[in-house]
């Protein structure tokens, strides 16, 4: 991997995935996104990993797509490249994804953060969809996810003007989970990941699926999906272990089966 670093926190069952194009503010070129997809796919299959954290550096989570790779392309070129196929594959990762964001999360960087299930941000984080300023628009889910999370009026303003919002504004809008000092954002993400990793992996997987179903569908469809996953968990050993531990006032030992 040229643009991705992976640090496995074995004792915590957490994998830390770092975007590593610092000179380009972690701009998301095709190679980086393919490496990210391959990394996440491998971690999704690793039984020793229960939570994945995606981060950049203090200056930038990711400052957008790599414009130089797209500037001279035509519509048919972009259709053939099909760069969003990679994004669709990332979206299918079953394990919880936490974005640890500091600095710029713009354009594709903001969209990548929104693909994650939870977002921890430093006080310096800035979110935005500034594609309109270069004559295009968000293409990796920015108009859709942003609108569902923060509402039409705020999404319209961000998408049509390209304005950035601060970490505090993002928190108030419901876009992120928490704002912490810049020196603490990665530690806070690890703390959150540790809490999730202590839960039943199979229950976490099905719970994530169910929440995403609510986000992606109407209420009736979401309720039916949730109910199916709820019943399915009663076929797991983790459910027996968790309920027995509760009844006997002990800490559960989840194995993910």
What are the salient characteristics of this protein?
Lyase 2-enoyl-coa Hydratase, Chain  A, domain 2, 11 helices, 10 strands
What is the secondary structure topology, with strand pairs?
Layout: E1 4-9, E2 14-19, H1 30-44, E3 51-55, E4 60-62, H2 75-81, H3 84-91, E5 97-101, E6 104-106, H4 108-115, E7 118-122, E8 126-128, H5 142-150, H6 152-161, E9 164-166, H7 167-173, E10 178-180, H8 185-197, H9 201-216, H10 219-232, H11 237-247
Parallel strand pairs: 2-3, 3-5, 4-6, 5-7, 6-8, 7-10
Antiparallel strand pairs: 1-2, 8-9
Helix pairs in contact: 1-3, 5-6, 9-10
What is the overall shape? Answer: globular
- Could you give the count of β-strands? 10
Name the poorly predicted regions. none
Question: Percent of residues in helical segments?
Answer: 40-55%
Mean of residue pLDDT? 94
